[in-house]
Amino acid sequence: MTSKKIRYSNSSTVFYFDGKFSSIKTLCRKATTTIITDEHVFAAHQEKFRGWNVIILKPGEEFKVQATADAVIEQLIALEAGRDHTLVGVGGGVVTDLTGYIASVYLRGIRFGFVPTTILGLVDASIGGKNGIDVNGYKNLVGTINQPAFILHDLSFLNSLPEKDWRNGFAEVIKHAAIKDAAMFRSLEKNELSFYRDDHKALAALISRNAMIKIRVVQEDEFERGDRKLLNFGHTIGHAIETQYELLHGEAISIGMICAAHISEKETGFAETARLAALLEKYALPAYASFNPEKVFSILKMDKKRKSSSVNYVLLNAIGNSKWQALPLTAIRKFLFSTKKW
Ligand SMILES: NC(=O)c1ccc[n+]([C@@H]2O[C@H](COP(=O)([O-])OP(=O)(O)OC[C@H]3O[C@@H](n4cnc5c(N)ncnc54)[C@H](O)[C@@H]3O)[C@@H](O)[C@H]2O)c1
Ligand SMILES: [Zn+2]
């Protein structure tokens, strides 16, 4: 198992991109470790967890709340888990966000690591140290920024990942390509989802390349004062659509990326919107959708990242080349309400 140590401003994370779950025994002592996972992951991979102390959560975003954190903390107290305890989150973004949050507040912080088991988790949610919970329907309203001690990739978990979660994760992969990596964009254009699902080597290379894109962005701007904002490409309008309609996160940001591409045409002269739309559709993601602009705009206005009358908005200069700038809400409103949006 090869390791890669990534340094952040005041901590570091060791990545094992070609790991095997069984080797966490070399990273953690069984007697002082608790694994946190969810029912879906546990049911599909029970044999991997044998011999470990495991807390199994109910799956789903609705359980990414303080009540779940409290229930886990009560179990840690019952186990008499002390400062030498390690928590390992094995699951999608919900499990790793919760695990990082609980480990950051229990006894004011204990050691933790992640084994992400969704594409979205592998390339996005497990990386960067943001963790937290939802409060009263507000996503990620409460949390900390705290980096895990280790992140181990074992792609055999993906054997049981539902098809919708593959598409969902590939929306973030396409996002990374669009903002930072024109060569990866071209590879994605040449291939398709079934290719990556069947070709372990190609998938592993794609996942580590995406993880490195996010790692570098976070290393340069851990606390989101500058270029970490680029990772929000497609997410401003995307989140507002996601809140309003029953869409996968990946579907909503896919539509959000196309809105941002059209806004980029006006702001930067970006000229490859059709190419981005074609790639999204190739990966079974929606590029266009009709939505109620009034409702979407009213949610967007409430976005917690909003600063006065403008938003920090991510634009494309070209495929693989992005920037962020303050954009007046009125410009976004005008785009959303234009009778012919595209
Ligand atoms: N911390 C961050 O920087 C960050 C970034 C992006 C997203 N997120 C968070 O991540 C969450 C979304 O992550 P997600 O899409 O991984 O969702 P998720 O954790 O809900 O997982 C999606 C579904 O797949 C199931 N699952 C997971 N792995 C599986 C496997 N290997 N086999 C079978 N089923 C499996 C889960 O039980 C769940 O039903 C959101 O809460 C979001 O806020 C956090
Ligand atoms: Zn996202």
Account of the protein in words:
- This protein has helices spanning 39-44, 66-78, 93-105, 119-125, 163-180, 182-190, 193-198, 200-220, 235-244, 249-268, 273-282, 293-302, 329-337, and strands at 4-7, 12-16, 33-38, 54-57, 86-91, 111-116, 130-135, 138-145, 150-152, 310-318, 321-328.
- The protein has 342 residues and is an alpha/beta fold.
- It has two domains: 4-160, 3-Layer(aba) Sandwich (Rossmann fold); 163-337, Up-down Bundle (Dehydroquinate synthase-like, alpha domain).
- Strand 3 (33-38), helix 1 and strand 4 (54-57) form a beta-alpha-beta unit.
- Helix 9 packs across helix 10, helix 9 crosses helix 12 (293-302) and helix 12 packs antiparallel against helix 13.
- The longest helix is centred in the middle third of the chain and has 21 residues, at 200-220.
- The protein binds nicotinamide-adenine-dinucleotide and zinc ion (ZN).
- Zinc ion (ZN) binds at residues 172, 235, 249, 253.
